[in-house]
Specification:
The structure is a single chain. This protein has 12 helices and 11 strands. By secondary structure, the chain is α/β, with parallel strands linked by helices. The strands form 2 sheets. An 8-stranded mixed barrel has the order 3-4-6-7-8-9-10-11, surrounded by 6 helices. The protein has a two-stranded antiparallel sheet with strand order 1-2. Helix 11 links the parallel strand 10 and strand 11. Helix 2 packs across helix 3. It is globular and about 50 Å long. It binds ligand C2E and calcium ion (3 copies). The site of ligand C2E has 22 residues, from strand 4, helix 2, helix 3 and strand 8. This is Bifunctional diguanylate cyclase/phosphodiesterase. One of its GO terms (molecular function) is cyclic-guanylate-specific phosphodiesterase activity. It comes from Iamia majanohamensis.
């Protein structure tokens, strides 16, 4: 066991009875949080590497549980994916993001994560359409992030689905690029996506590791030449930001530009 966010986080050996029990408990408590307004979205700024302006934000789910304390998405999203709860969680996130856009974030492109499991949900497009109808916002302010690995898993199905979402006026982004074994053929096929996010595992090494620098440079050039807006994840210092700008990367997201924050704080930043 170790401490995180003030609460005891207990890890069990996978495959044991205790591990299964712990997952069932997380699933039950997460379901309750989802039903009882116990989840929030935090918005992390995405900043232009050309002029420093705010160009977007990624909505990241936050769960503060009375007994568990703050639970990390890395802990509960996999459970939500296995149990199917991520379908409802994803629908909630789209709704909450649209509400925030309507309440003062219009002008900032807000990205919401869509898990691979949601792509299997036959109700996904209808749910997105219904959410857009509930909130009077221009759909172009909402962007759905699909991981590269989800895209590759069933490329034909995924690209057809992305096209239908794009036809609703939403934007689509390829997330965690570099970690999911996409081929050039995949990239060519998802022509509805307008943005590509380079995974932070590559970005973190660019200042000191020539190979990481070469990989990120090539990914930026490829993405840009295919017409994507390229966003680097996990930018933690000015040296990384400077190198990325030199490579022609469009935008950065990471602690250097700001941690995930409330929609109000982000709106103030957008205005100021
Ligand atoms: P992700 O999509 O790759 O999101 C970026 C993660 O990197 C976030 O972690 C963010 O807080 C963290 N991060 C941001 N800047 C930095 C930095 O400069 N350095 C480092 N080391 N990390 C940084 P978070 O919020 O813990 O989320 C983890 C993952 O959980 C996300 O990874 C995403 O895959 C998933 N997730 C979060 N919210 C949702 C959601 O609403 N739906 C779904 N399906 N997945 C979500
Ligand atoms: Ca993401
Ligand atoms: Ca990502
Ligand atoms: Ca990532």
């Amino acid at each position: 066991a170790h401490r995180r966010g003030g609460a005891e986080v207990v890890r069990y050996r996978p495959g044991t009875y205790e591990a299964a029990r712990a997952r069932i408990d997380i699933e039950r408590d997460l379901r309750r949080a989802l039903d009882d307004d116990g989840l929030q979205l935090a918005y992390q700024p995405q900043v232009s590497l050309v002029d420093g302006s705010l160009v977007g934000a990624e909505a990241l789910v936050r769960w503060h549980d009375l007994e568990r304390g703050t639970v990390s998405p890395d802990e509960f999203i996999p459970v939500a994916e296995d149990s199917g709860l991520v379908v409802d969680l994803g629908a909630w996130a789209v709704d909450a993001a649209l509400e925030a856009i309507a309440a003062g974030l219009e002008g900032v492109v807000v990205s919401v994560n869509v898990s691979a499991r949601q792509l299997d949900d036959p109700g996904l497009v209808a749910a997105a359409e219904a959410a857009l109808a509930r909130h009077d916002v221009d759909p172009r302010w909402l962007r759905l992030e699909i991981t590269e690995s989800a895209l590759v898993r069933d490329a034909e199905h995924a690209s057809a689905l992305l096209r239908r979402l794009h036809d609703l006026g939403l934007r689509v982004s390829i997330d965690d690029f570099g970690t999911g074994y996409a081929t050039l053929e995949h990239l060519r096929r998802v022509d509805v996506a307008d943005s590509l996010k380079i995974d932070r595992t590559f970005v973190s090494g660019i200042v000191h590791d020539a190979r990481d620098r070469a990989i990120v440079g090539a990914a930026v050039a490829l993405g840009r030449s295919l017409g994507f807006t390229v966003v680097a994840e996990g930018v933690e210092d000015a040296a990384q930001a400077e190198l990325l700008a030199e490579m022609g990367c469009d935008a950065g997201q990471g602690y250097h530009f700001g941690e995930p924050t409330t929609p109000e704080a982000l709106a103030r930043r957008a205005a100021g």
